[in-house]
Amino acid sequence: MVHIRMANVNDLMSMQMTNLWCLPENYQMKYYFYHFLSWPQLLWVAEDHNGKIVGYVLAKMEEDTTKEPPHGHITSLSVLRTHRKRGIATALMKRSQLEMETVFGAHYVSLHVRRSNRAAFRLYSQTLRYEINGVEKGYYADGEDAYDMRCTFAAGREEHKVDDDKAKVKRDKEEKEEEVKEEDESQSMDHEDTAKQITQDMKQVQVS
Q1: Whole-prediction pTM
Q2: Is 89 helix (H, G, I), strand (E, B) or coil?
Q3: How far apart are the C-alpha atoms of 6 and 39, rounded to whole Å?
């Protein structure tokens, strides 16, 4: 049986070892400490009945909040091959995402995945409902491209709804203004035609 829990400082070495065994993208220990000290709520581990760490998620909040609404980012996710296809990766992701949304008020979470990693892409797109936001050419050290993927939370969906409503109101207003403009132009043309007709009638009367 595997237990999903929030990581503590004693787990960082095991998280790093799991990363080294499973992934080509590796990090120095200070990077794990940086995540742990900055966003401890976002680091989660999967622990087996013997207390061994068999999976982890390393995540953070985006630090530059000047350009976009608050959002999280999945730095790394890994599960030992011996414990895959048990829903562990999904459980780790959901716990970290829940903390992003409830603790930090994130509007969405982003991540990068290799274009060749079909298993991970299927997990993100089908199970966790991530969508492709773009493709980053040569993102990885070996030159492989990465999918930039995002999963929108409730706050983000509400923000999009408000934006859509504002856009609709704007479109309706512009359409109404265009209709009024066309109506005014039509009435102006009618007035001009009437004035011309009156002028012609007056000339005919004068000639008679």
Answers
A1: 0.74
A2: helix
A3: 11
**What 3-state DSSP class applies to 183?**
helix
Q: Give the span between the Cα atoms of 144 and 48, in whole angstroms.
A: 34
> Which parts of the chain are beta strand (E)?
3-6, 44-47, 53-61, 71-79, 108-114, 131-136, 146-152
pLDDT in tens, 59-97: 999 988 777 789 999 999 999 999 999 999 999 999 999
Query: Nearest-CA neighbor of 96 among 78, 79, 73?
Result: 73
Give Cα separations from 196 to 199, 203, 207 (angstroms). 5, 11, 17
Q: For residues 46 and 89, what is the distance between their CA atoms, to the nearest angstrom?
A: 9
201 to 93, 189, 197: CA distances (angstroms): 84, 18, 6
Burial class (CB in 10 A: 0-12, 13-18, 19+), 30: exposed
